[in-house]
Amino acid sequence: MSTPRRGARDETELKAGPSSSRTAPAAFAIDVARDRGTPRGLGAVHFRRALTYVLRQHACRAARLSVALVDDRRIAELNQRYLAHPGPTDVLSFDLSDTPTAGGPEGAIVLSWETAAREAERRGHALLAEAVLYAVHGTLHLLGYDDHTRRHAARMHAEEDRILTALGWGAVYARVATDGRGPRGARAAGTRIRSARRQTARRRPAL
Which superfamily, per CATH, for 6-199? Predict the structure, then answer.
């Protein structure tokens, strides 16, 4: 089993400017942990930057998020334990707020860097872009987005690609695979990218 090592934790209080003239300055606490096998290119600063942008775009006044980068074995254990889904997945999100709040989300996001590496190779883009996509997806779940229906999924994935394009990575979700299997949205129902993210657990994961 691979667990996030405490020495890899990197937490910051980010003072973000208002997303509009009508919003107060925001304070975001974003904690990033990486397991021992995580590639060096997946630095905490990239995830903090992306999630700060997401929170600003959704007019959050405050947020407390943690992001854990783990291997396939560890995320499969969490997937089975908390959602009763067998096998590894790309990302899991855990809503840790006691009650819904207009201020912003509180939650944990766990993503598999091994799954991201495979998918990035298939689609011909950087591992970092794929991993940030997973973190953005988990954050959008905590903000109330869901992908239970095709219409909701299309809205969510369009928002992901809008965010990633603004951050300079382009439309990562929509990028067509180089192995001839087509865009993600063309996958059959039940494949990882379309179905494994459908639930947000409401318990703190035991990492």
Answer: Metalloproteases ("zincins"), catalytic domain (3.40.390.30)
